[in-house]
Amino acid sequence: MLGMNRFTPFRKSSFLLTSVIVLALLLSACGTAKEEANPASNQTAQSGQTASNGQAEAKEKVMKDAMGHEVTIPAKPSHLIASYLEDHLVALGVKPAAQWSVPNGIQDYLADGLEGVPTIPYNLPVEDVLSHEPDLLIIGDESSVQNGLYDQYAKIAPTYVLGTETTKDWRAALKKIGDILNLSDKADQVLKDYEQKEADTKEKLKPLGERSAAILWLTNKQFFLVDETVSSGAVLYGDLGIKPPNLVSEIPAGSRASWNPITLEKLAELDADDIFIVNSDKATGADEVTNTALWQSIPAVKAGNVHEMDPKGSWLYSGAVAGSKIMDDVVKALTP
After folding, report:
1. 1-20 residue pLDDT tens
2. Gap between the Cα atoms of 276 and 270, Å rounded
3. Contacts for 36 with CB less than 8 Å, ≥ 6 apart
4. Which one of 75, 212, 237, 254 has the fewest beta carbons within 10 angstroms of its own beta carbon?
5. For residues 187 and 88, what is the distance between their CA atoms, to the nearest angstrom?
6. Interstrand relation of 119-121 and 99-101 (parallel, antiparallel or unpaired)
7. How does pLDDT run across 152-198, given as a tens digit for each residue?
8. DSSP tag of 105
């Protein structure tokens, strides 16, 4: 909004003050007369200001969500909740009314963008949602609003469901949220910046030649092999072109999960140049398996090519912010 210029004339004499007032009134009258003569002129000027600022006036709109609901989106939602979609909000420069959480933590890698934002349980209890007084809810998957939950949420605030087909592709989810929030241009720029980061990272890794890597998550003494299609797997294998290890490729397509449980005995067969491990057990002092002879026998371990990633980092998440941080970690781990 344009601010008004304020000034205080010096009062050297009552005559001067009177002259200023009269002059102001005459100018005002002239301006009014011109507007009356051409009523479209003022509207055109305002439109020009809007265009020069690069923003069209936001208006309430109706959008159909993945479940077929006709959802009325507020003109300027300012108190929204989009649980587990915060990566996209942070990338778009939007601060939600509450952020996703589980009993043992939050998405710490988004701390800078979510500073001061209170938490809400991951399963969005109705009472908790109500307490934050949202003006818009964006839900990820259809399964999150089953058993009458959608109707309860919709009574609190307009509720838009992205749908699983959208949320499984973070780029599509980012673009859809940008559309909902009238930030489509910003979403496009985020994607362009990510593509540039991807290209720059590939260039930095080029001297290494073809390289394979496994991504492991260790929690409660159980190893999980991160799949090619999710979180850090999608970044390493899909975006950066690092080769998946034999144990990922050997999992039948119909049996794959985002996190594939694997025994230490099976890991002894791992053929990979590098191992990136998210060791959630180490922080609790429960890490015993990485001290075993079987673990030490893995070729990448013997070669000293094990790279420990922060359990509070972005390696188990997806989005432009997460992916960018993962790429930074890869470069730091693999290059001098």
Report:
1. 333 333 333 333 333 333 33
2. 13
3. none
4. 254
5. 9
6. parallel
7. 999 999 999 999 999 999 999 999 999 999 999 999 999 999 999 99
8. B
Helix (H, G, I), strand (E, B) or coil at 336: coil
Q: How far is it, in rounded angstroms, from Cα 209 to Cα 189? A: 30
Q: Are strands 213-219 and 136-139 parallel, antiparallel or unpaired?
A: unpaired
**What pLDDT is stored for residue 56 in this prediction?**
57
Residue 63 forms beta bridges with which residues?
A: 71
Pairing of strands 136-139, 80-81: parallel
Cβ within 8 Å of residue 2, ≥6 positions away: 49
Residue 152 to residue 213: CA distance in whole angstroms:
45
Q: Is the dihedral of CA 262, 263, 269, 272 positive or negative?
A: positive
Q: Report strand pairing: 213-219 vs 274-279.
A: parallel
What whole-number distance in Å separates Cα of residue 78 and Cα of residue 241? 39
- What's residue 53's pLDDT? 41
Measured distance CA(190)–CA(179) in Å, rounded: 13
- Cβ atoms 240, 200 nearer than 8 A: no
Residue 307 pairs in a beta bridge with: 276
In the predicted model, what is the mean pLDDT of residues 63-87?
97
Report the percentage of the chain scoring pLDDT > 70: 82
Q: Is residue 143 packed enough to be buried (19+ CB in 10 Å), middle (13-18) or exposed (0-12)?
A: exposed
CB atoms within 10 A of CB 317: 22
Q: Which is more confident, 31 or 323?
A: 323
Question: In the chain, what is the greatest distance between 2 CA atoms, to the nearest angstrom?
Answer: 99
d(CA 111, CA 277): 22
Q: Which amino acid is at 252?
A: P
As a whole number of angstroms, the distance between CA 54 and CA 7 comes to 30
Instruction: Find the range with the poorest average confidence among 113-117, 146-150, 233-237, 289-293.
Output: 289-293
Rounded to an integer, what distance in angstroms lies between the CA atom of residue 280 and that of residue 239? Answer: 25
> What would the pLDDT profile of 15-38 be if each residue is shown by its tens digit?
333 333 333 333 333 343 333 334
Contact 79, 135 (CB under 8 A): yes
Tokens standing for 196?
Answer: 């540039």
